[in-house]
Model the fold of this input.
Amino acid sequence: MVYENNTIELLKVAEISKTTNVSPFDIASTDITFVWNRGCTMNIVVNQRVYELLKNDIIILTNHHRIENVGFEAARLIKFNLPFINHIGDKVENSLKAALFFNVTSVPIVSIEENELHTFENSWDIFCIEMQSKDNLQYDMLQSILKRIIILCARKLKKEKNGTAANRETDILREFRFLVENYFAKHHDVAFYASKLNKSPKTLSNLFSSLSDRTPIDIIHERIMVHARKQIYHTTKSIKEIAYDLGYEDIQTFSRFFKNKEGLSPIQYRERGRDC
Done:
């Protein structure tokens, strides 16, 4: 089921089984994907890391993640673009950030307890009903239901947080990653993001060193590389176009950066993909 108001605002809801074509797990076309495991166990490989989901676990992914393999019996998917929720309030946006970047180093997983299942099931049922509605209130209703699900997931994850000082610090790191999602194609320097957070680059780096094994520049470069690989491998854009889209004024600078990270030039990476 798909709601598409225009080319920007998009919401997709699907219930699938292991007999379904795996194409619904292509998450690159939308900004956020909630994968709700409805079978016994789901094994899902995301960015080369294996996650095991029990029944009624929800894993929350963004379009920079890459699902490399999935074994499942049944699942529900909620996929949407960020413009779809642009007007549902700062508190909900902050809840979404908390859900997406709850753990600075891994993908968030929400475990629905037995006594909470009815609330989530009820939201899903209303979702399915409203996806069939075609009146002028459908958009508002769908936003409201999605808002509820985001808050339910964020509330679950928030309960796992311990220590107020650590919480404030991890909130800054989540905000950093959220900013990177929005600006990675234009801004490659830590100073830009630090200024957005009203921090100095040194303070931001110190926060990362205390809570993560990656630095701010690592996060920025990883995000650029995920997009670059996807564009080189899956599109016919020239390397010059891809470099320009990622904020590089000249192809040589981009090529040096890509080769330093990947071990291959962009052209070699594309040719290797064609040979596979």
In short: Strands lie at 2-4, 10-17, 32-37, 41-46, 49-54, 57-62, 67-71, 74-80, 109-111. The mean pLDDT is 82.
